[in-house]
Amino acid sequence: MEAFTVVESVLIPLDRANVDTDAIIPKQFLKTIERQGLGRHLFHDWRYEDDGTPKADFVLNRPPYSGGKILLARENFGCGSSREHAPWALADFGIRAVVAPSFADIFANNCVQNGILTVTLSADEVEHLFQAVQSRPGYGLRIDLAQGEIQGSDGWRTHFEVAPGTRHKLLHGLDDIGITLQHKEAIARYEAQRREQFPWLFRG
Amino acid sequence: MAAQTLYDKLWDQHRILAEDDGRTLLYIDRQLLHEVTSPQAFAGLRAAGRPLWRVDANIATADHNVPTTDRAAGISDPVARLQVDTLDRNCREYGIEEFGMMDRRQGIVHVIAPEQGLTLPGMTVVCGDSHTATHGALATLAFGIGTTEVEHVLATQCLWARKAKNLRVWVDGRLGAGVTAKDLVLAIIGQLGTAGGTGHTIEFAGPAVQALSIEGRMTLCNMAIEAGARSGLVAVDERTIEYLQGRPYAPSGAEWDRAVAVWRQLVSDADAHFDKELRLDGSAIRPQVTWGTSPEMVLAVDDRVPDPDEAPDAVRRQAWSNALQYMGLRPHTPITDIAVDRVFIGSCTNARIEDLRAAAQVVQGKTKAASVKSVLVVPGSGLVKMQAEAEGLDEIFRQAGFEWREPGCSMCLAMNADRLEPGERCAATSNRNFEGRQGAGGRTHLVSPAMAAAAAIAGHFVDVRHWQV
Fold it and tell me: Closest residue of B to A177, CA-based?
């Protein structure tokens, strides 16, 4: 997994609340058995006409945003289905961070598994960023994960919180299974005890 | 020991170890697998050369992609077929029990696991599907996960998680005639909002919840995620125990008695602390209909479509306005004036036998409105289908001009051939009314099975409370 240290990019404004995972990646693209290649379907219904031509007014189709790495949205981003295809599509498009006032839990969790940082700011701070992007097209953002600091190209800056474990994982691009298996004795011990106490939970 | 909520108890019982920042390693008792969110997990396991940790903790079925028409004909879409074949192959390779497409136990993963007794109180249950919350109706800690976590559970039988807060939704009184668990949960989402439960586990409690059947409680917990909560819960009571007795994978004999004694402790202590509480009067709840593109955009059937100019803030004004435009609705239109093109009765929310009975009761002796193009009735499992047929429900539906289908997720998310055309309006018993959810450009109104059936007959929404008489 790609480590997340400092990411600098134009900020892509998507001025919507409750952006759901069906909107991020519609179901017709979930039939794949691969993780890669979903970036071209990201926000499909908003991004393309029925005949497949890109909609000129959709933000991801307009430079400089089409090459952006940081997405800005309103509250409850990523609500709905648990499909990891949503962060896969974001990552494949090149998105490294999403900034919003709040995120749906499963989605935020899935992002961490794919090296995407979710930055939770206050609704006022997010409003400020939307205004900044509107008044200065091409407005850029620099996110420093180790420092927990975000800075705008106009000098505006603020801090954000990330749980230490999550930060460590992102900073080093770690995946969990290896870490977890370091505890395999503890897991086996717990499991043996559970089997003894509640044998009906074990069919085999 | 301090008083604990049911969630506190379930959490503590599955805690293996915790890191300083609260990240906790939880043991997972049951993983449910389906074709859409598992292929990349198996591929990851294989690529790393890791063995499966515990084979009997897993159970698999294909539900999202399967056709609801003649099963013997197989799957015509080659991409969907590859996904289902991949699940079959993975299960064979790793020795995981699978209810395949031709097995009568096949069905929607959240319908078949409780039906088989594969979901038992006190378990942690996970699945690569957000509606895993459903299983909380049997006092399990059940939540949806992504594919990377599916792989993690396959390899370690554990997950890293952070404890959520406790939210109790307490429902006094009793639901009125014609008002169901679906109406209750939609009304709850309307009050909490689609993110109101984010970061929380919801325990549904109170007289109106206790009066619900286990199937009704599944409907309730199923949609916890639509209020932002990964898990919903209902405590164990006599109904829970009655429901489980005799299920194929439930314990029996002396082990049953031992299990029941353990299960009876799966309730919140009387003085347990909840971080947040919502109280409702169940007797005041009316049949609900969503009008917009988020489940929180919901009203009672005798209300009118709202006006964005009356929205409480700018963000919602914009959201309401977008929703009305997408839904092709004008402010102040009575809900009962909204005509539907198609009706879908099914999904992990409402495709159990009681749901089909409730729909059939409304339909009996009537036929669908000529203006309604199609009505799909999709049972939640092969066994639900057989039971419905034994009761003659399929005949009631067929005589009304409804289509009686094979089990699967079907038009809830329209991954298979069952879908809306652009602009078509659907009364659906499923759980999400997002843009494009039932087909690009499709317009979804979420309702109960009885309300959906009545809309199919009348051609537009009607208030089943009065319509039945």
Answer: B152
Q: For residue B21, is pLDDT > 90?
A: no
Are B463 and B301 a contacting pair, CB within 8 Å?
yes
Whole-structure pTM value = 0.96
CATH architecture of the domain A6-173 equals Alpha-Beta Barrel (3.20)
pLDDT tens track for B141-160: 999 999 999 999 999 999 99
Checking DSSP bridges between strand B298-300 and strand B288-290, what pairing results, if any?
antiparallel
Rounded distance, CA A50 to CA B5, Å?
Answer: 50
CA-nearest residue to A204 within chain B is: B56
A31, B79: Cβ pair inside 8 Å? yes
Q: How far is CA B231 from the centre of its chain?
A: 11
In tens, the pLDDT along B383-416 reads 999 999 999 999 999 999 999 999 999 999 998 8
**Buried b / exposed e across A3-27, counting CB within 10 Å, b at 16+?**
ebeebebbbbbbebbbbbbbbbbbb
- Report the residue from A74, A106, A180 with minimal CB separation from B130: A106
At B469, the pLDDT band (50, 70, 90 cuts) reads very low
d(CA A102, CA A17) in angstroms, rounded, equals 10
* CATH 3.20.19.10 intervals, chain A: 6-173
Contact B422 A87 (CB under 8 A): no
Side chain identity, residue B458: A
Two tokens at B444?
């979804």
ipTM of the complex: 0.94
